[in-house]
Amino acid sequence: MLIDVQVNYYRTNRIVSVDANTLRVEVHRLQSDPSFICYNLVGTTDQGRLLIRSSKDPAEMLDLYDAYMDQAEEKRKAAC
């Protein structure tokens, strides 16, 4: 099921359709500084993998993930 997500590209906010089943939060640790951990919310569009948002705060990424999954659930219920 496709949902609309907001992505910031070079100071321009865009709405992009992403397959809700492919949304996930990925964790990356810098090799140069292992104490720095970055959390990325990613998904898949019809054109491939898309970085939706990146943050050092895991709660922010998980809240955003939950909000998009709630949006997908509402869309599923409306379609039935």
List the helices and strands and how they pair.
Elements: E1 2-9, E2 12-29, E3 37-45, E4 48-55, H1 58-79
Antiparallel strand pairs: 1-2, 2-3, 3-4
Shape: globular
Terminal Cα span: 13 Å
Q: Which percent band covers the strand fraction?
A: over 45%
Given as residue ranges, the uncertain stretches (5+ residues, pLDDT < 50) are: none
Cα gyration radius (Å): 14 Å
SSE order, one letter for each helix or strand: EEEEH
Class of secondary structure makeup = alpha+beta
Give your account of this protein's structure.
The chain has one helix spanning 58-79; strands at residues 2-9, 12-29, 37-45, 48-55. By secondary structure, it is an alpha+beta fold. Strands 1-2-3-4 form a 4-stranded antiparallel β-sheet, covered by helices on one side. The longest helix has 22 residues, at 58-79. The chain is globular, with a radius of gyration of 14 Å. The model has no long low-confidence stretch (mean pLDDT 91).
